Structures are given as structure tokens and as C-alpha cells.
Amino acid sequence: MEIGAPGSLVGNRVQPAEGDDRAPATPQPPPLAHPAVGLTMEMWLVWLVIAVVCGVVETVTLTAALGVLGLSALAPALLAALGAPLPAQLVVFAAAATAGVVLVRPVALRHMNRPQLERFGVDALVGKRAYVLREVSDRDGLVRIDGEDWTARSYDESAVIPVGSTVDVMRISGTTAFVYPRE
Fold first, then answer.
1. Structure pTM?
2. Which run of H or of E encompasses 144?
3. Is residue 5 situated within a structural domain?
4. How far is Cα 81 from Cα 132, in angstroms, rounded to an integer?
5. What is the DSSP letter of 156?
6. pLDDT value at position 31?
7. DSSP class of residue 161?
């Protein structure tokens, strides 16, 4: 069939055959190209991307605010997936974000700012009992704290602590324990 011949496809229309009085059919858009469907599908994805980005940034900043905003973005994502209009999505996001920031953030910050209950590292050795391995003075000494040997100095500069004594660790400075004899 030649291009432009009756019954042939020209552009997106079929040329009417000779003697055909019917008007040519108007082109129809593909079924998934409806503007509302395309917008709705894109918006739920936009909200989901906002939620993920806020969540990732929250792991770096630890402020609790971005985590709340990320969770708040999930509500309008669900609405968008169900076909709700953009103004409704924005209202739900604003309400969820406000409620989250007002209610959740103070609780999260209170938990994040708790004082550390346990001591770690050399700070955990302060207050422990030690055993003198080599006489401890204000210049030299060796003690065993929890199975580890530490250089030691007497906390009281005038005291000399004999081998075999039990002492308390008063402070740690670098790799040296300052000790005081137990009574």
C-alpha cells in the first residue's frame, strides 16, 4: 500500500477510503499517559525519595528532626499512591511533621542526651583495687590492675608503698596510674 493511498496510515490517522463519508478518527493517547495517573505515580515516588534522603541525612546528623520529617513524608507518599490530590498530601505532611516534631523530638533528644552510666577505657580503672608489684614512690613503681601491669606513682608524693600492698587507683594519666594505699 502506498503512503497517502486510501486506507493507509498517515501520521497517526488512517486515510479514509474513497467514498467513505465518516470523519477520520481522532488519535487517542496511550492508556497510561493520562496526566492524573502520571502525576500521582510521580508524587508518591517524590515523597518516598524525600523520606529516604531525610533518613540517610539523619544517620549522619543525629538531630532527630530529619528522622521525624522522613517518617512524616511516608504519610503523603501513601496518599499519593492512593490518588489523593497534592494539596491534601501537603496538609497531611505538615500535620504529621508538626505532630512529630512537637511530640517525638523532645523525647528522642532526652534519650540522646542522657549521661553515660558506665565508664570505659582507662576511666573505668579509676577507683579499682591494684596490687603493688614494685615499690611505688613519687618517681617510680609498678602495679597490677585487673590483670594488667601499669607503671605507677604514689598519689601522696611523700608516701612510699611497699611491694605486696593493696592500693586504690585514684587517677590515670597517660600510661601511669596514681595510687593510694588502702587502709
1. 0.43
2. strand 142-145
3. no
4. 72
5. S
6. 45
7. B
DSSP codes, 154-170: ESSTT--B-TT-EEEEE
Neighbour tally for 135: CB within 10 Å: 16
Decide which of 112, 143, 167 is a domain's last residue. Answer: 112
Integer Cα distance of 164 and 110 in angstroms: 47
Distance set, CA 40 to CA 29, 49, 51, 76, 149 (Å): 18, 14, 17, 11, 68
Last residue of one domain, picked from the residues 112, 129, 159: 112
Cα–Cα distance, 132 to 179 (Å, whole number): 10
Intervals of the chain under pLDDT 50:
9-10, 30-34, 39-40
C-alpha cell at 20: 467513505
- Helix or strand or coil: residue 27? coil
